[in-house]
Amino acid sequence: MNLMVGGLLVMLFACAGAPAPVSPRPPTPEPNAAAPIVSEPSAELERMSVEWMEAMIRHDRTRLESLMAPEYVLRNWDDSKQVRDRTAWLDALFNHLKIEKWEQKAIAAQVYGDVGVVTSKYIWIGSFDGKGFDSRGYLTDIFVRGPAGWRVVSRTSGGIPGSKLIDGTVSVW
Q1: Cα–Cα distance between 57 and 100 in angstroms, integer?
Q2: How far apart are CA 41 and CA 150, in angstroms?
């Protein structure tokens, strides 16, 4: 009997170190591990950015004025060019610009409370007062949410070095 109890004890100690068999089950996925979820405000700002540029192409003044805040300004990324306010931007569009091609890609929005930041890259070709341009670069648009909803208050534009800009200069660092 002692031999039998001893054998059982040896078996118990030998098995105690081995993991118990468990039926396999798939690992529990971490929340949001597959892909980031785009919030509704971010998606709305991306859509509005596209709508804004479509209104520019169509020369839809009513839509442009509803999307652009009265305090809107256009800046160059390094402040090397004159800042244009909304009035000057609209004047340039309706009286001086001829747009042959506009393409906006890689549009991404982030929302920080009542402020939204939309970044993108662009290609646009056309002429300004008869002088041709062929520009590629990056945009950062700032939207603010107010009683009238989201409106763009600022755009910062940066042409890729070598791009022929709207004012006829070539973009450099």
Answers
A1: 9
A2: 9
CB 86 within 8 A of CB 167: no
pTM for the whole structure? 0.72
Q: Cα dist. 54→42, 46, 74, 149, 170 in Å?
A: 19, 13, 18, 19, 26
* CA–CA gap between residue 143 and residue 75 (Å, rounded): 15
- Give the other-Cβ count within 10 Å of 157's Cβ: 19
Q: Which residues pair with 65 in a beta bridge?
A: none
Number of other residues whose CB lies within 10 A of the CB of residue 71: 11
Strand 149-159, strand 115-128: pairing = unpaired
CATH code (residue 60) = 3.10.450.50
pLDDT, one tens digit per residue, over 65-108 is 999 999 999 998 877 777 899 999 999 999 999 999 999 999 99
Domain extent, residue 132, equals: 40-159
